[in-house]
Amino acid sequence: MSEVDGVIQGHRDGHGFLQRADRQPDIYLSPQEMRAVMHRDRVRVRIIRYDRKGRPEGRVLDILERRKTPIIGRLLHEAGIWLVAPEDKRYGQDIMVPKNGLANAAVGQVVAIELTEPPSLYSQPMGRVTEVLGEIDDPGMEIEIAVRKYEVPHRFSPETLAQAAELPDKIRAIDRKGRIALTDIALVTIDGEDARDFDDAVYCEPFKQGRGKTAVEGWRLVVAIADVSHYVKPGEPIDVDAYERATSVYFPRRVIPMLPEKLSNGLCSLNPNEDRLAMVCDMLVTAHGEIEAYQFYPAVICSQARFTYNEVAAILTNTRGPEAARRGELVPHLLNLNEVYRALLKERAKRGAIDFETTETQIVCDENGRIEKIVPRTRTEAHKLIEEAMLAANVCSADFIERAKHPALYRVHEGPTPEKRLLLQNYLKALGLGLSISDDPKPGEYQVIASATAERPDAQQIHTMLLRSMQQAIYTGANAGHFGLAYPAYTHFTSPIRRYPDLLVHRVIKALLTGKRYSLISGITEVAGKAKKGAGAEEEQWETAGAHCSANERRADEASRDVEAWLKCRYMREHLGEEFGGTVSAVTSFGLFVQLDGLYVEGLVHITELGGEYFRFDEVRQELRGERSGMRFAVGSRVRVQVSRVDLDGRKIDFRMVDEGAEASLVARARRDKFGADKHAGPVAELEAVTQADRALKAEAKRRTGAGKGVHPVRAAKSAARKGASAKSSKRR
Questions:
Q1: pLDDT tens-place string over residues 83-138
Q2: 523: pLDDT confidence band, cut at 50, 70 and 90?
Q3: What is the pLDDT of residues 550-601, one digit of tens each?
Q4: Is residue 82 domain-shared with residue 56, that is, in the same domain?
Q5: What is the DSSP letter of 456?
Q6: CA 303 – CA 301 distance, rounded (Å)
Q7: Are both 191 and 90 inside the same structural domain?
Q8: Is the pLDDT of residue 184 over 60?
Q9: What beta strand segments (E) does 23-70 contain?
């Protein structure tokens, strides 16, 4: 059997997987194999067998590298022994701490621990406390845990802080050299109410070219983006830290920024009535929404106003209202922006881009950092207006770079893999819609199905299946287009304050404007210790940078979700035993995920709570169906549940079904399905938001027990009992 190198991914149930360096399917490692290794160790594994589904199982041959970063956990004292229970359950083992390694930490406190002795087949790992974070109930502790748990860089180096302190407080005369002055143009920023950094400003005016029948009418659309690249130079301390972070990380009430505050909220933030340096994408957009021409140039701008989305939406709805009266001279410019948005929207529909509405939520916290309420965040016309303007600038930047045949980082979103395509085709066929996707699907086919099913009660499930069939968007040096947006080339240009790929794109564009080429090899990759020379080295470096940025984007998402899950669990502990109405948001082989009405909190109804019969998971229809009663549970089903358990450490909320009436209606609905398909509908999240939600669901599924297409409640209960007995026996050993 072959030998493979990779990184261990532990599982809370004791087993693990080897993530292979060659990107082939993960290799399963049994709990016995995991006893001498830990989550994130780099090891060499031999494939010893394949299961009946062709999945490989391995045996650990050699430990190539132990993970050296501190582990976060709670300090416990049991039977005279000091232990740290890792916050990240993927580590799988408690860590023993000698008395001289406690660093004055008290029982129950959250600590960071450094391993002094790794685990073996016959002994637990040993360690010493290196940092005491505080009590678990301290305000903001969930964020302190998350940034360390996911290894999010949250402290700038002394060199970075020193360099930031030396930056000027405002732009200087030398900074204006070689730039076009746009300070007299009514550029404005439009952001959320809680935004603190403003990296994009927009302006629009009517445009007419030519005379008579050949005249072209449209708009001049100006998108000005903060020129971060003027201050952050390759290889300097600020750049080193920015590359390591790759993105800002957003938590409720706190942001871990990619750049020091002097840049993110100061010099590079397009604050109103202050001159700022910008990179500008100046476009001519026709009445049909086509970008007739564009140009990039460095400029000096001065934002005329700081608008919020709600304010702009109110003005566009009522141009004679109080909001419009306060912004009198700027209202015509907003109307121009709205007109060009409408035109761009036509072009979006024409090219067949996938467009779904979403109801995002916002966590509102009290002064102690606890959830006060969770409210829906409405996506207004103002949000869409800015989104279309940014999409246009991103497309122009990709086109500009591609025409110059210069390497860069593209934002690539590919369509379905053959396996996912087949699963979706079978699902649509089972529904009897009369609609499907081809063997070489185009985005327009997805949009046709989405539009045709918009009035069905099960639209949420259908649209979710459409989106899950597509692959995750990534950064890569090889352009493969953006499937969801139906663009042949797409990159990120519009957020260099919070995304490193945008900063790289700015550097490439600036180099091209001066007739030069931007060398990544002499920049960030030397900082990362991976600079190479020779044929193909440049392409390899862009791929390395893309993989790094993609991985850190996922890391930021995971850390944010972890904090939100902790806050929601803490919030729901106050509602134990209470009953709520809810909607099934996902169906798995081990149960139903239900989102509570009004609270926007999701929890699991385990399959053992669905009644005393055998439920089979229908992968094609994505539903659980009772074999005796025909009772069916699918996405969009209305249920009533009781909050039965909250596991703060595991970030899990469990419900139990309490409404027999809802179950009866589902039985009736299941029987009706034998004679004809329902016509369903419901809201879904937009493209990348749903992709992120799908990743979160998969991560949650790995943490939950239950596998296979059918789980009998009695068998599941016996299995759980056996696992519990095994765990106790293991602890005694």
A1: 999 998 889 899 999 999 999 999 999 999 999 999 998 899 999 999 999 998 88
A2: very low
A3: 999 999 999 999 999 999 999 999 999 999 999 998 899 999 999 999 888 9
A4: no
A5: B
A6: 6
A7: no
A8: yes
A9: 27-29, 42-50, 56-65
Residue 21's pLDDT is: 76
SS3 159: helix
Instruction: Indicate the SS3 state at residue 499.
Output: strand
* 59 and 187 assigned to the same domain: no
403: number of Cβ within 10 Å? 10
Return the ∠ at Cα 677 (arms to 672 and 679), rounded to 5°.
110
Last residue of a domain, one of 20, 37, 65: 65
Conformation bin of residue 8: beta by default, left when phi > 0, alpha when psi is -120 to 50: beta
Instruction: Give every CB contact of residue 589 below 8 A, 6+ residues apart in sequence.
Output: 607, 617, 706, 707, 708, 709, 710, 711
- In this structure, what CATH number is given to the domain that contains residue 617? 2.40.50.140
The CA distance from 418 to 27, in Å, is 22
| Separation in Å, CA 702 to CA 13, 45, 604, 650 | 9, 22, 13, 12
Q: Is 398 helix (H, G, I), strand (E, B) or coil?
A: helix
In a domain, 442, yes or no: no
CA dihedral over 258, 264, 268, 271, signed as positive or negative: positive
How many domains does one find in the chain? 4
Backbone angles phi, psi at 452, to 5 degrees: -70, -25
Q: How far is CA 102 from the centre of its chain?
A: 37
The strands making up 615-618's β-sheet, listed across from edge to edge, are: 632-634, 623-626, 615-618, 710-711
The rounded distance, in Å, linking the Cα atoms of 448 and 278 is 39
Percent of the chain at pLDDT exceeding 90: 63
From 65, 84, 116, the end of a domain falls on 65
pLDDT value for 538: 85
* Nearest alpha-carbon partner for 599 in 254, 358, 363: 363
**pLDDT one-digit tens code per residue, 667-698:** 444 444 433 333 333 333 344 444 454 455 55
What is the SS3 string spanning 589-645? Answer: CCEEEEEECCCCCEEEEEHHHCCCCCEEEECCCCEEEECCCCCEEECCCEEEEEEEE
Q: Which residues pair with 655 in a beta bridge?
A: 605, 643
CA angle 117–119–120, rounded 5-degree value: 120
Are 314 and 238 within one domain? Answer: yes
Is 166 part of any domain?
A: no
Paired sense of beta strands 602-606 and 652-657, if any:
parallel
Q: Give which of 272, 123, 92 is closest to 191, Cα–Cα.
A: 272
Tokens for 272, please give them.
Answer: 């109103």
Same domain, 126 and 260: no
Which strands form 216-226's sheet, in the order they lie side by side? 180-181, 291-302, 275-286, 216-226, 200-209, 188-191, 305-308
710-717: long-range contacts at Cβ-Cβ below 8 A with a sequence spacing of 24 or more? Answer: 710/589, 710/614, 710/615, 710/616, 710/617, 711/589, 711/590, 711/607, 711/608, 711/615, 711/617, 712/614, 713/607, 713/608, 713/610, 713/611, 713/612, 716/590, 716/606, 716/607, 716/608, 717/608
Taking the CA atoms of 561, 562, 565 and 570 in sequence, report the sign of the dihedral they define: negative
In terms of domains, do 190 and 224 share one? Answer: yes
Whole-model pTM?
0.84
Distance CA 537, CA 398 (A): 22
Domain encompassing residue 181: 177-403
Q: What is the CATH number of the domain that holds 95?
A: 2.40.50.700
Whether 428 maps to a domain, the answer reads: no
> Do 54 and 192 belong together in one domain?
no
Distance CA 393, CA 283 (A): 8
Are 81 and 23 part of one and the same domain?
no
| 457 belongs to a structural domain | no
